[in-house]
Specification:
The protein is α/β, with parallel strands linked by helices. 35% of the residues lie in helices and 28% in strands. It contains 6 helices and 10 strands, in the order E-E-H-E-H-E-H-E-E-E-H-E-H-E-E-H.
Length: 251
Amino acid sequence: MQLGAEIFKRSPGGVCLTEIGECFLTEARAAIERLDGAAGLVRELGAAEANRLRLGLSMSVIAGRVGTWLASALQGVKQLDLQITEAEPASLARSLQQQALDIGLMLAAPSAEDLCVRRLWREPLMLISPPDDKFVGQAGLSWRHLAGACLLVPGVPGGELEPTVRRGLEQAGAAADVRCQAVGVETVLRMVQWRQGLAVLPASAVPEGRADIAVTPLVADIELCAVWRRRNDKPALARLLRWIERSGAFS
């Protein structure tokens, strides 16, 4: 390496640094320290990224069994740092394919060759109504009982819940006014309070302890799936999948 100046000088007493050499040594030491610091930062960031799990939810399903499942995962998988995103299923699928997310929990499994799908469990469906509605407390409530009702379903048309609701009504021979609402669960619940219709939600999306709404189980359910990209080698994802297999969390 040509520096363009002498950094050493010879004398009867041996070899010593020139004035330029002293400056070079000072800068070199500082550069090495900065390089060591940068390497340490990369290691810290790498360790943090190895523990980060970017989880996508297709709707606010933190209550009920999903919340319990996530709490168990956090206890069972050490150093798991959750980063949660809520979005429509199609958006979650794209994010998984682009590796912007590591795993998604969805009520409708996407069909894509590069995505792995595992069935977790079947989620009960609930009818949400005003507290004085005629369906409150009715045992064995089925789709045929909802003939003629206005049913509010969160999400875009053709999303997760709408096909299940329409299919259930059709199989029961019941006609109802199914209205998709491209809003969150809380807004749909507010619409129920305003008596704009009755809502159909999975059990895990229903908030607990609400006196302003009534929750009645339907004799119907929907499948909850875990979805991830086939070639995602994220350490946090691998640890979660191992925990799932060991704990028998897939049913």
